[in-house]
Amino acid sequence: MRISTASALALWLIVSTASLLARADQPPQPSCRDAAVAALQRRYESAKDLRAEIVQTTRSVALGANASQQMTSKGTVVFAKPGKMRWSYEEPEPSLVVSDGETLWIYDPTFREAQKLPATEGYLSGAAIQFLLGEGAIERDFEISALGCEAATAELSLQPRKPSSYEKLHVVVNPQTGDLLKTTVFFVLGNVTEVAFFNIERDVNPAASLFRFDPPADVRVIELDDPSR
């Protein structure tokens, strides 16, 4: 089966390191790790939906380690609670990943092919996608360590507490606002997918039709089973 830009998605999350030193005459301040995690959790719990421009880079074992062989895609993503998402890729070729929370579609217009499968944890990388959809708890779902911390960015490494299709996540966050700036997913077989987010908008109230997909009449539909079964 052909693996398209959209199929490489698989999905992601989180943030940063170091301790913030408090003056002796002041109450202790939270560590950079704790502050970044708390800000990120608050941000995604409070947002009903979000829209962002994305740049996705996929480094595949099959492509080798040469940076020139990496696959870079650009487009937009929209999330809405509960459990809805739409990834629209425009470069280098059009493709689409859409879920209404029950059914997931992966559409490749170039090859006139659409894959249809249940929108379950077995495909959507469990805790990672739950968090982005505002349904997860970071401290509960991940072992978290800080990799770096600056005033405007914090980077964290997240190890899933339960067995998963990915090994770990690295996430870059704004520790002041809780904005998720970049996620990197390290998969068990060695593939790496990085997604950077730009021009993030929240509570834009996207139409419900945005998360539905009706394949054109001339498109071949492939129905897949839940991989977790």
Structure description:
It is a single chain. The protein has 229 residues and is mainly beta. It has one domain: outer membrane lipoprotein receptor (LolB), chain A (Clam), CATH 2.50.20. It is built from four helices and twelve strands. The protein has a twelve-stranded mixed beta sheet. Strand 7 (142-149) and strand 8 form a beta hairpin. The longest helix is centred in the first third of the chain and has 15 residues, at 32-46.
CATH topology: outer membrane lipoprotein receptor (LolB), chain A
CATH class: Mainly Beta
Helix/strand order, N-terminal first: HEEEEEEHHHEEEEEE
What is the helical fraction, as a range of percent? 10-25%
Strand ordering within the main sheet:
7-8-9-10-11-1-2-3-4-5-6-12
Assign the CATH architecture: Clam
Cα distance, first to last residue?
Answer: 20 Å
Structural class: mainly beta
Topology:
Layout: H1 32-46, E1 49-59, E2 71-80, E3 84-91, E4 95-99, E5 103-108, E6 113-118, H2 121-124, H3 127-132, H4 138-141, E7 142-149, E8 154-160, E9 166-173, E10 180-187, E11 192-202, E12 220-223
Parallel strand pairs: 6-12
Antiparallel strand pairs: 1-2, 1-11, 2-3, 3-4, 4-5, 5-6, 7-8, 8-9, 9-10, 10-11
How would you sum up this structure in a few lines?
This protein is mainly β and 229 residues long. The chain has helices spanning 32-46, 121-124, 127-132, 138-141, and strands at 49-59, 71-80, 84-91, 95-99, 103-108, 113-118, 142-149, 154-160, 166-173, 180-187, 192-202, 220-223.
